[in-house]
Amino acid sequence: MTSMRVAQVTTPGGKFEIVERELPQPGPGHVRIAIEACGVCHTDAAFVHNAFPGVEFPLVTGHEVAGRIDALGEGVTGWRTGDRVAVGWFGGQCGHCRPCREGDFINCANLRVPGWAYPGGYAEAMVAPEQALARIPDELPAAEAAPLGCAGVTTFHALRQSTARPGDLVAVLGLGGLGHLGVQYAAKLGFETVAIARGADKADLAHRLGARHYIDSTTTEVSDALQNLGGAKVVLGTAANADAMSATVDGLAHRGELIVLGAVPEPMSISPLALISGSRTVHGHPSGTAQDIQDTMAFTALSGIRPMIEPVPLEEVNQAFERMLSGAARFRMVLTMDR
Length: 339
Known about the structure:
Layout: E1 3-9, E2 16-22, E3 30-40, H1 43-48, E4 65-72, E5 84-87, H2 98-101, E6 125-129, E7 134-135, H3 142-145, H4 151-161, E8 169-173, H5 179-188, E9 192-197, H6 203-209, E10 213-216, H7 222-228, E11 232-237, H8 242-246, E12 252-260, H9 272-276, E13 281-284, H10 290-303, E14 309-313, H11 317-326, E15 332-336
Parallel strand pairs: 8-9, 8-11, 9-10, 11-12, 12-13, 14-15
Antiparallel strand pairs: 1-2, 3-4, 3-6, 3-15, 4-5, 5-7
């Protein structure tokens, strides 16, 4: 094969079109991946609409990639052709900025996100630096592994780095692409898990995912409901709604923390008094490194957690993208490459 199909956007805000491109060759320290699946993340829309600096068009986005290595660049060690690998939001670090020198690679000042720094996973193949690779366990099909490179690692890694310990009350705000995984991880990590979403109809799903409690935010004051359960040690804010995340702060226990994952530009409204009272904290969490992704997939396979996905062929990328944007996806759209 000397060419590949990609789904590209030629102008900001435009539609995807399927075109043929020359098959790329990996340079030193890079590998080429024959892509089998790529998740459709809401952040992809920000790239398509040119909301990040330095986005170049025509654009091939996608940062939830699963496939197999089919070519090695010079100097690559520890990897072989045929290895099953994933690449997520973390697509490589510069190695010389202060966060990198401190070993804080996910906060690299020059973080290389696939579909932004280089062509991403809405394609049959891509080239990525070896530092971005995570191994996929045999138990995980590519279509289920792909969303773990962003949605999965973001929720799992946030929870395992939190102050919560097994038995603590942990609430997950939102039951979408991130939230439905967050509830599963929280339950399997041993937390008394609370799911918070809009509508009574989501209660059954929340309990099936492992939640012990469900709060319908349309009929209940979320903070009061959390306090009635004893107060949340952690709230995992996956909902892309600044007001909804802000409304959980008064439901935190003493020294409780709100971990912000919902990436929205709107400001949050939180009273300083609410933070001072009970020594509460609010902070963001930016995904995870390649090793964190590999850890996420290993825990996912071990614990029997699975993302709920809607796989569609690459040719239906526009329909998948619109379904993601509308909020109708249940719960992660995944593009698959016919081979």
